[in-house]
UniProtKB/TrEMBL annotation:
PROSITE patterns, sorted: NDPK, NDPK_LIKE
GO MF: ATP binding; nucleoside diphosphate kinase activity
Reaction(s) the record says it catalyses: a ribonucleoside 5'-diphosphate + ATP = a ribonucleoside 5'-triphosphate + ADP; a 2'-deoxyribonucleoside 5'-diphosphate + ATP = a 2'-deoxyribonucleoside 5'-triphosphate + ADP
Protein name (database record): Nucleoside diphosphate kinase
Residues of the signal peptide: none
EC number(s) from the headed UniProt entry: 2.7.4.6
Residue span(s) of domain Nucleoside diphosphate kinase-like: 1-138
The keyword Transferase appears for this protein: yes
Keywords per UniProt: ATP-binding, Kinase, Nucleotide-binding, Transferase
CDD domains, per the entry: NDPk_I
SMART domains: NDK
GO biological process: CTP biosynthetic process; GTP biosynthetic process; response to hydrogen peroxide; UTP biosynthetic process
Cofactor: Mg(2+)
Length: 143
């Protein structure tokens, strides 16, 4: 079954949005397979965003991610990568529709509350990076 990596960024944790965000994924029908709150060190943040290392906003992005705890999660379910990105909304909150997480809670691309893997391959790499200890293996009877 498909899995994705979802991370509530420091602004989302500090603003008390964790419960609402988890509810949206649960209510859609996805299954929570991994969850932890961690303060990220610079090396992990830089590795996660390595593809963006040449971007002018890279240093600011890393500072933002290490500025406070994040909630790292693995969600599972049919088409969870693409559907998870729809639940999250467009990267730039100026373009994200009301009803999406960023559409409802963010106005600044540099403080956009949440991250979600952009492909099945990215999800595989990100889950391995953030959950080297592995995730739980449970299934709902209807899953
Ligand atoms: P995320 O989904 O975590 O993937 C890459 C992140 O880079 C993105 O969300 C934004 O937080 C950040 N980002 C992308 N473009 C910009 C930008 N122009 N300025 C600042 N941050 C950006």
């Amino acid at each position: 079954m498909e899995q994705t990596y979802i991370m509530i960024k420091p602004d989302g944790v500090q603003r008390g949005l964790v419960g609402d965000i988890i509810s949206r994924f649960e209510q859609k029908g996805f299954y929570l397979k991994g969850l932890k709150i961690i303060t990220v060190d610079r090396a992990l943040a830089e590795k996660h965003y390595a593809d963006l290392s040449a971007k002018p906003f890279f240093n600011g992005l890393v500072e933002y991610i290490i500025s406070g705890p994040v909630v790292a999660m693995v969600w599972e379910g049919k088409n969870v990568v693409v559907t998870g990105r729809k639940i999250i909304g467009a990267t730039n909150p100026a373009d994200s529709a009301p009803g999406t997480i960023r559409g409802d809670f963010a106005i600044d691309i540099g403080r956009n509350v949440i991250h979600g893997s952009d492909s099945v391959e990215s999800a595989r790499k990100e889950i391995a990076l953030w959950f080297p200890e592995g995730t739980v293996n449970w299934q709902c009877s209807s899953h």
